[in-house]
Automatic annotation (TrEMBL):
Coiled-coil intervals: none
Stored Pfam families: TPR_10, TPR_12
Entry keywords, A to Z: Coiled coil, Cytoplasm, Cytoskeleton, Microtubule, Motor protein, Repeat, TPR repeat
Gene Ontology terms for molecular function: kinesin binding
UniProt region (Disordered), positions on chain: 16-53, 666-707
Lineage: Eukaryota, Fungi, Dikarya, Ascomycota, Pezizomycotina
Zinc in keyword set: no
Protein name: TPR-like protein
InterPro entries from the UniProt entry: Kinesin_light, TPR-like_helical_dom_sf, TPR_rpt
Main location: cytoplasm
Length: 961
């Protein structure tokens, strides 16, 4: 005699939002699946039989106990588990007394009582019963008896449902081995054990082994039972779930469609197993981002479950939750939130506030709120989910760690960076301990922590995290896995924001190539990589290539997402910025107007992205000298940002600065200086708060971090868009510099430097920028000794923070050379210029204009020391490079010609000197006009040379600001 199959639901797909279930079949008794009428009939027959026996023989008779047991079976079949439990306990008590604890019938009652307890979710009690049955059967019947093996199998089931996976696996392997030996490899009960072993392997994430088991079960069941048997269809479903968890979505979809078709035919459209297959197919379609098809499936599953099971059934609530997830994937945020609230309300009522499914709904509602930028509400949900999961599941459970991570993301969205970092570090530590350093979830937390550090401008640490995540993902998942490609992308963003543009470009090209191959040319992630590559090319001023990328991203997004999608509008805005960089002002204006119109319609007039487009349109109009229109835009952007973000927000201060720039160009110096001072005061206020978010950010993230989307997008800032608010702090000083008011300029820079050192520390990149600018101002004031001290501070700080060969470090080294040269410390200046020129050529290339500036200054320092021959050769190098890079009419090229004429003159090479003087005069007049000051100066130098061999002084220049 065989006993009935147990039914237990469990997650097979490793996705929080979706649930696939497996029902246990296999072990036979008169407890196979039957119509409800047959179950009722069985109960109706058992009750009179029991009553008759009790009347004839009295209670406690052996036959009476058999009837009690059979009534329990009949009740159990109908799902009346609590009533069945009472009958089983009554039969067990009587049999123990009449037959003894080790009698086979007594042990059968123990086993059935364990099954009834299991089906009520009383797993601890069920485990005790099944262990007792197993121990008794081993003693009475032997290890290999079918009843003993049945107890092994049932104990494996209850251990599984307690998530004691290692013990469950041991039991199922033992049951399988015993059944193979006793019944053969193709017996239905053997195949049932194969299936159960596949399930427990799946839940241990041993997907490859699980797949082998499910394929074996499917093949055996097709042969033994037929293609349309419910158990065969169950194996198809379970194989689909395992393929899903391996991210083999195409194969998983085929399996779930096949299971659905078979179940519709065999069981009907409204059968719970059919509805389960509809749900699972929806889950797989969702994972393929086929959201429209997934929505159809989940709506169908929901409708069927509401009708068959009722609105408050756990499976109905699961469908509501899954539909919410799919709507979320379609960015139908309001509807998604509504579904998750409905699922949560139902689960709290049906399951209780602390049930894992209730906590899952709280988590998913938090996710939906987060993606609507309702960060405060999201934080409340994630704190609630975390508290519940810690209590119900423990601090180290995967779901608990997921809630810690999600809370970190919500805090990140509110710019509570310190708290967010604590959460992300806690999630990472927990996952390393629970899952191992190379587990995909651990690597996901490493990536999230990298994003968090990136937002805090801790660029070195962020880069380190992203490199670690990338290395781990390449090893664990392969070079072409979407998560690996995400890490490549995020590392590219981190490198970009450190101005390591060459390395960033390499990463973005690699991410793009991988995503095109793995996901296709029109996939949103591929289009994101195209956008990010365009942003990095833009930052390198490779505008033509950047334009190609942004046009390609725009075309793809219009096709894939529609003309009004936020990502499409971002591409329009970025294309406008690149056109602006190419000085294609009319086209840039057209793009920014289009982006603004779309964002007003899609996002509203006060959305930050809309206000960004208003700002950028103002920039484009400014570039065309349409000052009145530009002023309207900048005032509108400023008013909107003050209202939406506050007066001291970095974007508000940016608009203040841009308006000041515009007023300056309109020669409205009074209002311009007042406006700039307002920006400075606001920035200083933020600096006193110690808020790192006011610091420069050369490329925005295009969204808040969530579920590994920490900074997928890079937005381009137009010229004058000035994303760094440090400029706002210093901009009054910049204006004073333009007006040659260097004394007041010094005051402003000292003021900014004091605030930055206090708020950020002396070695922060932007503190060092201000230190360098103050040094240059002191040079302008001819306070060379003070300038030398300030610039040395900048050099030491930048070497420590950025490295010896970083462009900004070399900038300060060059400026230190200028300060030394002006104090007649020519040899020390020469040492500085040699170091700067060699390093700049190595880092930037021999023909980079910054490297050529260092070569030029080195030549001037050599000239001052009367090292004529070397000075001449070095000036020839600078001239050749500048002609190649900047062109013959550039002012720097013309300056090199003049200096070369001077050094030739000092060596008494009068013929060659005359050629250079004439060339300087002719080319300067041609390039700049006869009345330009450099043309007048070159003409005067030529005249003086022709009158007498008098020499002209050589000099040096500072690195351009």
């Amino acid at each position: 005699m065989y006993r009935r199959a147990l039914a237990a639901g469990r997650k097979l797909v490793g996705i929080d939002h979706h649930d696939t279930s497996t029902s246990r079949s296999g072990d036979k008794l008169g407890v196979r699946k039957r119509g409800q009428n047959k179950r009722d009939k069985a109960e109706n027959m058992a009750r009179p039989a029991l009553a008759g026996r009790e009347k004839a023989l009295g209670r406690g008779n052996a036959d009476d106990l058999g009837s009690v047991h059979e009534l329990g079976v009949a009740l159990h079949k109908q799902g009346k588990c609590d009533e069945a439990e009472l009958m089983y306990r009554r039969a067990l008590e009587g049999r123990e007394k009449a037959l003894g604890k080790d009698h086979r019938d007594t042990l059968w009652s123990v086993s059935e009582l364990g099954a009834a307890l299991h089906d009520q979710g009383k797993y601890d009690e069920a485990e005790i019963m099944h262990r007792r049955a197993l121990e008794g059967r081993e003693k009475a019947l032997g290890r290999d008896h079918p009843d003993t093996i049945l107890s092994v199998s049932e104990l494996g089931v209850v251990l599984h449902d307690q998530e004691k996976y290692d013990e469950a696996e041991i039991m199922h392997r033992r049951a399988l081995k015993g059944r193979e030996k006793a019944l053969g490899k193709d017996h239905p009960d053997t195949l049932w054990s194969v299936n159960e072993l596949g399930v427990v392997l799946h839940d241990q994430e041993k997907y490859d082994e699980a797949e082998i088991m499910h394929r074996r079960a499917l093949e055996g069941r097709e042969k033994a039972l037929g293609k349309d048997h419910p158990d065969t269809l169950r194996s198809i479903n379970n194989l689909g779930a395992t393929l899903h968890s391996q991210e083999k979505y195409n194969e998983a979809e085929i399996m779930h469609r096949r299971a659905l078709e078979g179940r519709e035919k065999a069981l009907g459209k409204d059968h719970p197993d059919t509805l389960r297959s509809i749900n699972n197919l929806g889950a797989t379609l969702h994972s393929q981002k086929k959201h429209d098809e997934a929505e159809i499936m989940h709506r169908r599953a929901l409708k069927g479950r509401e009708k068959a099971l009722g609105k408050d059934h756990p499976d109905t609530l699961r469908s509501i939750n899954n539909l919410g997830a799919t709507l979320h994937g379609q960015k139908k945020h309001d509807e998604a939130e509504s579904m998750h609230r409905r699922a949560l309300e139902g689960r709290e009522k049906a399951l209780g506030k602390d049930h894992p499914d209730t906590l899952l709904s709280i988590n998913d509602l938090g996710v939906a709120l987060h993606d609507q930028e309702k960060y405060n509400e999201a934080e409340i949900m994630h704190r609630r989910a975390l508290e519940g999961r810690e209590k119900a599941l423990g601090k180290d459970h995967r779901d608990t760690l997921s809630s810690i991570n999600n809370l970190g993301a919500a805090l990140h969205g509110q710019e509570k960076y310190n708290e967010a970092e604590i959460m992300h570090r806690r999630a990472l530590e927990g996952k390393e301990k629970a899952l191992g350093k190379d587990h995909p979830d651990t690597l996901r937390s490493i990536n999230s922590l990298g994003a968090m550090l990136h937002s805090q401008k801790k660029h070195d640490e962020a880069e380190s995290m992203h490199r670690r995540a990338l290395e781990g993902r390449e090893k664990a998942l392969g070079k072409d896995h979407p998560d690996t490609l995400l890490s490549i992308n995020d590392l590219g963003v981190a490198l970009h924001d450190q101005e390591k543009y060459n390395e960033a470009e390499i990463m973005h090209r690699r991410a793009l190539e991988g995503r095109e191959k793995a996901l296709g040319k029109d996939h949103p992630d591929t289009l994101r990589s195209i956008n990010n590559l365009g942003a990095t090319l833009h930052s390198q001023k490779k505008y033509d290539e950047a334009e190609i990328m942004h046009r390609r991203a725009l075309e793809g997004r219009e096709k894939a997402l529609g003309k009004d999608h936020p990502d499409t509008l971002r591409s329009i805005n970025n294309l406008g910025a690149t056109l602006h960089g190419q000085k294609k002002h009319d086209e840039a204006e057209s793009m920014h107007r289009r982006a603004l119109e779309g964002r007003e319609k899609a996002l509203g007039k006060d959305h930050p992205d809309t206000l960004l487009s208003i700002n950028d349109l103002g920039v484009a109009l400014h570039g065309q000298e349409k000052y009145n229109e530009a002023e309207i835009m900048h005032r509108r952007a400023l008013e909107g940002r003050e209202k939406a973000l506050g007066k001291d927000h970095r974007d508000t201060l940016q608009s203040t600065n841009n308006l000041a720039c515009l007023l300056q160009n309109q020669t409205n110096h009074g209002e311009a200086e007042t406006t700039r001072r307002d920006a400075a005061e606001g920035s200083e206020k933020e600096l006193r708060r110690g808020d790192p978010d006011i610091l420069p950010n050369s490329a925005g993230t295009g969204g808040k971090p969530y579920n590994q989307k920490e900074y997928e997008e890079q937005d381009i800032a137009s010229a004058l868009h000035c994303p760094d608010i440090q400029v706002s702090v210093e901009s009054p000083a910049v204006m004073l510099h333009d007006q040659s008011q260097h004394g007041q300029e010094e005051i402003m820079y000292r003021r900014a430097l004091t605030a930055m050192v206090k708020a950020l520390g002396p070695d922060y990149a932007d503190t060092l920028d201000t230190m360098n600018l103050l040094g240059e101002t002191l040079l302008d004031l001819k306070k060379y000794h003070e300038a030398e001290a300030m610039i040395r501070r900048a050099v030491v700080g930048r070497e420590r923070t950025l490295g010896l060969v970083h462009r900004d470090t070399l900038l300060s080294v060059n400026n230190l050379g200028v300060a030394l040269c002006n104090q007649k410390k020519h040899y020390e200046a020469e040492v500085m210029y040699r170091y700067a020129s060699v390093s700049a050529e190595k880092t930037l290339g021999s023909y980079h204009q910054d490297a050529l500036l260092c070569v030029y200054n080195l030549a001037c320092a050599l000239h001052k020391q009367n090292k004529y021959h070397e000075a001449e050769m070095t000036h020839w190098r600078a001239l050749a490079g500048r002609e190649e890079t900047l062109g013959p009419g550039n002012q720097h090229t013309l300056r090199s010609i003049t200096k070369l004429a001077s050094i030739l003159h000092d060596q008494r090479k009068y013929g060659a000197a005359e050629v250079m003087y004439r060339r300087a005069a002719t080319e300067t007049a041609k390039a700049l006009g006869v009345g330009h000051r450099l043309s007048v100066k070159s003409g005067h130098s030529l005249a003086m040379f022709l009158q007498s061999p008098a020499s002209s002084a050589s000099g040096v220049v500072s690195w351009p600001r």
